[in-house]
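User: I'm writing a short methods note and want a consistent example. For TetR family transcriptional regulator, I'll paste the sequence; you return only the structure tokens, no commentary, since I'll be parsing the reply automatically.
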Amino acid sequence: MKPYDKIMDAVKNLATHYPYDKITYADVAKEANVHWTTVRRHLGNKENLKKKLLAYQSENNHSFTDTRTKILDAAEKTFTKYGYEGATLDQVAKEAGLTKGAVYWHFTSKSDLFLVLTDRSLKKLIEGLPQQSEDIFNSRSSMEALKVLLENEFRACAEEKNDKPLLFFEFISKRRDQEIKEKLSTSFSQLFEGTSEILKKLQQQNLVTRDVDSHALSVILHALTNGIMLMSLVSPDHVPLRTIADDVSKIIWKGIMPEN
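Assistant:
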């Protein structure tokens, strides 16, 4: 293969996995197995290299964000299948159809990837909270609507193929790194704050008791539901998730409803 063809193949491969403004002569040279001066001779100055990279990405509707999302989706499947300890970045890369280098470009380590994945899941949860609360309090029977919501949450957790709760508890139980603890704390702080804001608005509408601080109530509600799911993993026979939603919804509803 001629040097120019090797260089163009390298450009296309790199442009598939990395943002155009992060690719250098040295990257192309290494990928094509030629000297960097050969790359410059065929592609011109740095600005011309960037133009070629950007043009290729635009023509193929390829974006840097798509690659990151692809890795996260692949990581979710891989972690669920093998567990946190058993999963490797090689497996994630294979699942995503990318190179291991592409994974490392976006994430510094397996724990970093898992933390971003956790943060993404929590953000999705936060985004869905306003609609969930609206569905509950606009329902003819708010307690029944809460029960249905909990049933769906618990049913998903109880399914044999859904190991996400177990996977998360496996991860946090073995983390001793202070930086990881701080990142987890930040993610959950956003969850508590988002829930607290919704509860505060409901308190102002006299739909939820004002006797309890909205932030404290947020922590209690998440601790209760997550604690139940954790206990079901430890002792599934004593914590039947498929049938316990009725009792849990009654406890929550009686605890949050205003006295008058």
